[in-house]
């Protein structure tokens, strides 16, 4: 088995330089880092995580807290984060909060004992709690903004406003928004933006919720849509699928009787009848960028950056002008 000394000799550097190149690459020249890295790869050498922690004070572990794994919406985000972690020679510790603030806080405390920093996806804890956590451990938020804390946000608010603009242009003036889980920062931003935009256009938003972002909740919501609503915007794809099913069972056609759109775009939505208008959210990029930002925070750079990634509307056959009369 190759040792650090073997790597140093193969790269033509001292053992100390080889160690820095592998553990603290910011402290050596790029040409030296690449030479040491190539030698390590060729010899099959992998730095010992425990030794690295003793040397640098870092474990190479990143805590990633997601609200659920039952919704495939989060899978591309985790894949993107995993790839970025591998690129920085880090490893993910994944935990699931189930949208519960107490569970979320307990998981964050536990992960903080092992990880160099945390990524919290759509956290439901208070602003004060998140600020305090950032003071104690490097932290990046995803789809949540708290003052100047570092965050990566998929801009579904702007994308959803574009979808509302599409419905308004089609002639809809009473539009239901089937909202998401209680405590969702993104959902609150959406409701505020949609309500103001509709009012400015002489239209009205009817908010249903908060609701769990599930298929069954969408079915239940389909029976509670205001009679005046000629279009529906759903918080996520699961709610949209439940709405589509519930409306179909009730004999209400999409889009002839009710137009339907969703604020994210699971592949299922393009295969329904009719295919559902939705937002294309760059989730893999969100996960990757969150890891990059956390690495910046851990190394002392760009501590207060918030990055916004656009979500683009994908127009399909589920939206059409309201039926006259």
Q: Could you characterize the architecture of this molecule?
A:
This protein has 325 residues and is α/β, with parallel strands linked by helices. It has twelve helices and twelve strands. The strands form two sheets. The chain has a six-stranded parallel β-sheet, with helices on both faces. It is elongated and about 80 Å long.
> Largest sheet, order of strands side by side?
2-1-3-4-5-11
Instruction: Give the termini distance in whole angstroms.
Output: 79 Å
The chain-level mean pLDDT equals 91
Structural class: alpha/beta
Task: Give helix % range.
Answer: 40-55%
Q: How many helix segments?
A: 12
Largest beta-sheet details: 6 strands, parallel
The proportion of strand residues reads: 15-25%
What multimeric state do the chains show? single chain
The radius of gyration computed from the alpha-carbon positions, rounded to a whole number of angstroms, is: 24 Å
Topology:
Blueprint: H1 4-11, H2 15-23, H3 30-43, H4 49-56, E1 61-66, H5 75-87, E2 91-96, H6 101-112, E3 117-121, H7 127-136, E4 139-142, E5 151-155, H8 156-170, E6 174-178, H9 185-200, E7 204-208, H10 215-222, E8 231-234, H11 237-249, E9 259-262, E10 277-280, H12 283-298, E11 306-310, E12 312-314
Helix pairs in contact: 1-2, 1-3, 5-12, 8-9, 10-11
Keywords, separated by commas or semicolons:
325 residues; alpha/beta; 6-stranded parallel sheet; 6-stranded mixed sheet; 12 helices; 12 strands; 17% strand; elongated
């Amino acid at each position: 088995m190759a040792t650090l000394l073997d790597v140093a000799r193969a790269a033509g550097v001292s053992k100390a330089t080889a160690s820095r190149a592998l553990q603290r690459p910011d402290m050596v020249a790029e040409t030296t880092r690449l030479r040491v890295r190539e030698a390590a790869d060729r010899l099959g050498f992998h730095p010992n995580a425990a030794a690295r922690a003793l040397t640098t004070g870092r474990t190479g572990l990143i805590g990633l807290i997601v609200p659920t794994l039952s919704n495939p919406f989060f899978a591309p985000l985790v894949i993107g984060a995993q790839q970025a972690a591998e690129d920085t020679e880090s490893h993910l510790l994944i935990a699931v909060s189930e949208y519960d603030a107490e569970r979320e806080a307990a998981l964050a405390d536990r992960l903080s004992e092992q990880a160099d920093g945390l990524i919290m996806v759509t956290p439901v804890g208070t602003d004060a709690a998140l600020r305090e956590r950032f003071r104690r451990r490097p932290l990046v938020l995803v789809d949540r903004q708290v003052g100047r804390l570092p965050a990566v946000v998929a801009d579904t608010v702007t994308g959803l406003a574009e979808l509302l603009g599409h419905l308004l242009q089609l002639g809809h003036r009473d539009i239901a928004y089937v909202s998401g889980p209680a405590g969702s920062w993104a959902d609150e931003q959406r409701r505020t933006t949609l309500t103001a935009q509709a009012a400015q256009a002489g239209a009205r938003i009817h908010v249903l919720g908060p609701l769990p972002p599930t298929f069954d909740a969408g079915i239940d919501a389909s029976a509670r849509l205001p009679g005046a609503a000629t279009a529906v915007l759903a918080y996520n794809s699961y709610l949209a699928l439940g709405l589509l099913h519930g409306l179909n069972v009730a004999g209400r056609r999409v889009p002839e009787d009710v137009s339907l759109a969703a604020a994210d775009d699971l592949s299922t939505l393009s295969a329904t009848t009719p295919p559902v208008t939705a937002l294309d959210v760059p989730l893999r990029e969100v996960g990757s960028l969150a890891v990059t930002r956390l690495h910046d925070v851990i190394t002392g750079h760009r501590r207060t950056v918030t990055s916004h990634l656009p979500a683009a509307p994908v127009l399909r056959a589920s939206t059409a002008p309201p039926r006259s009369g």
